[in-house]
Amino acid sequence: MRQTWLRRGQARSLILVFSGWAVGVTPFLYLTGDSDVLVLDDYRDEILPHALLASYARVRVLAYSLGVAVAARQLAAVAPDRAVAVCGSPYVAHERFGIAPEIYARTMAEVTPAALDRFARRAGVAVPAAPDVAALREELALIARRPAASPATGDVGFDRVFAGRRDRIFTAQSMQSVWTGHQASWLETGHNPFPIWQDWEEIFA
C-alpha cells in the first residue's frame, strides 16, 4: 500500500485513512484537525505499516469507497479506537452488496485516461494527474480476487457508516442491503461527501 502523510507532527493520535480507488488523497485535502493523518491507497498489496501505528496512543480508521473492503480485512489487526466507513462496502463486485459485477468488469477493462475522467465525474472527485493506468487496472483485478471480510450483514467492526443517497458508485440500494446490521447515516450527497465536512472530528463525532 502507498502511504501519504497529510499531517505528521507530534500528535499522539492518528487517523488512518483507507482511500478509494484512483482518487489518492484528493478528497481529504481540506479537512483540518490536530491528529496526524496517514492516507493509504494502491491496494495491490495489503501490507499495513504496523511499526508506524504502534507509536500512537490512539488510532482511528476512516475507510472510503473501495477502501472499505480493504479496511474491513484489516480492522482486527489495527484494533482502532473508532472505525468509520464512508460510501463503501466490505463487498466489491457483488450484485446486491457492492458494485454490480458487470460494471466492475467494464471499469477494469476500460482503465484509460478518458474512462478515468468519466469515473471522476460520476464519483464527484478529481483523479490525480498522470495516473498509472496499468497499476490501477491491476489493483482492481487483485481487489476483486480477495474474499470479503464479512457476512452479508456487513458487521465487521465499523462503529459508524455513512452512505450517500445520490451515490452512483456504491448505490443507495446496495448500501442499504449490505449495512442492514447498522444504523447507517444517510447523506444527501453523491459518492464524495467530504465537502460537507471541514474537520475530521465531524466525521468521528
Descriptors:
single chain; 205 residues; alpha/beta; 7 helices
What does this structure look like?
A seven-stranded mixed beta sheet has the order 1-3-2-4-5-6-7, covered by helices on one side. It is α/β, with parallel strands linked by helices. It has helices at residues 50-53, 67-78, 101-109, 113-123, 133-145, 172-178, 200-204; strands at residues 2-7, 13-18, 36-41, 58-64, 82-86, 160-164, 185-187. It contains seven helices and seven strands; from the N terminus they run E-E-E-H-E-H-E-H-H-H-E-H-E-H.
Query: What is the helix tally?
Result: 7
What Rg do the Cα atoms give?
A: 16 Å
SSE order: EEEHEHEHHHEHEH
What integer is the average pLDDT?
94
> Uncertain regions: pLDDT < 50 for 5+ in a row?
none
DSSP strand tally: 7
Find the structural class using helix and strand composition. alpha/beta
Kindly summarize this structure in a few lines.
This protein is an alpha/beta fold and 205 residues long.
Write the layout of secondary structure elements.
Blueprint: E1 2-7, E2 13-18, E3 36-41, H1 50-53, E4 58-64, H2 67-78, E5 82-86, H3 101-109, H4 113-123, H5 133-145, E6 160-164, H6 172-178, E7 185-187, H7 200-204
Parallel strand pairs: 2-3, 2-4, 4-5, 5-6, 6-7
Antiparallel strand pairs: 1-3
